[in-house]
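As noted in the main text, all predictions were made from sequence alone. Below is one such record, for Pyrrolo-quinoline quinone repeat domain-containing protein.
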Amino acid sequence: MRLLSSCFVKDSSVRLTLTCGLECVKGGREAGGTCSTPLGWRLALVRWREHGIIGYLCMRLAHVPLDDLEFDALMTSNDRLPSSRTACPWCGASERTAWGTCQGCGRYYRPEGWTRVPRRRSWWIVVPLLVVALLYAWLHDPFVPDLVTLFWKRPATLRSSDSPTHQWAMWGRDLAQRRYIAEATQALEGRRVWSVSTGVPTRSAPVLVDNVLYLGGHFACSALDAQTGARLWEVPLSGPVHTALAVAGDALYLGLQDWRVLALERQTGARRWEFSMQNPVAGAAAVAHGMVYIGSMDGFLYALDAATGRLIWQFKTQDQALSPPAFAENTLFMSSTDGSLYALNARTGQRWLRFRTPERLHDTPVVAHGLVYFPAGGQLFAIAADAYEIPGQFQFKQVWAQFWLWGFPVPRPPGQPGGRWRFVPSKTRGKILAAPAVAADALYAGDTQGMLYAREVLTGTELWQFQARGAITASPVVVGSQVYVGTEDGLFYALERDRGTLRWQLDLGAPLQLPPVFASGRLYLRTSDGQVHAVE
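Prediction:
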């Protein structure tokens, strides 16, 4: 007979089974009744009633033996107990149970021929299994830091491509990708200062640091004097550069179409290190926390040590990662053509959120005012920057939504975590393809029908609209009180930021498919014919 903490064994020809009461079987039932509840479950009910669920669990883990009161409660809970009583061999008192502690003398007694066998302890199995389960949960919980990456894969530097004042060191100027310069500067007049041909055109937007303009070209990377446009140096490469460079410290970081990432000396273009991928580089590089973040057409976002090029971590999406990430402190936001915006731990690459949309995401997200703005399917989305997703939450909502669609009596399932607002241009209008420029009180985005929208940052309320002549497929830039934007028909516009009034426009003669950059009091634009223009 097994009583959780001990066993009573008699001759093998006799089978004794305890349920809620007592049932002896020796060639058939001799006494008692039948109960479908096992003794262990009955003991659990008794202990839950007396000690609560927490108390029962603690007693179960500690293997607390069955005491007399609990045994009596178990036995008396069954109305069909054996009618025979047993006499205590010590004092002769008549006891109602076949074994136990005598109520008269307090000594333990048992029927003759029975022996007490201690129950096997299972802690040596339970404890290791519990440790393994906790370790697995630790390693796979996205909200628990990856200790291996934190302590054994540290970057050797703290470089960042976040632009200082009067510089433009990366794709969106700062790590948040805002394309906004708040410092008041003298209003530009729309005068072209110089124009330089860079050969076969590529989609590498220029960056500017210390009056030097860096840009990628067709199998080359070059540096130009920002004041005159004179070429300072040019280095040949084994592949074309179709993404913007990132400047951090004394190094340039760029990706090639031949599946490699390079780090070059900023002063000479000499090579420092290279990293090979499995597919062509898709997005511009961004440098933060001493790591180079860059996406690939194989769907991976790679985080490399900025000093050595060593791989620190990589994150796989369901499709291509075509744009550089945006950062909000230790959180990284990246878009993918699988229709999702991902929020990752920038240090370890662990996923905190996947916000799903029905369309492909091509351009970079923008982080400002506690929100993340990104275009998807011609619309503009805004979600909370601190949103997160519990593992399995989306799958649970999918089942919930299916039951709701089938007409089951369940409430309407909630939306995705973090959603704030969405702007959908009119059906007669075009699609928003490029990321907005986000200022202190408004954001600015254009569509493929040439409409430039100014909207309030927290609610998405419309402030004003401006109709340009050509399609707007590149992000605008905000400098002081003005917003600048280019179009596919080669016109470049300067507007008053508060009302949308046109100040001037400049015809550059070729489509503007890359966003403008501003540094040292000038705008620098690269047109689709390979020309670079300086405007002031």
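The radius of gyration is 36 Å. Residues 1-37, 74-84, 113-117 have pLDDT under 50 and may be disordered. These features were considered when defining construct boundaries for the mutagenesis experiments described in Section 2.9.
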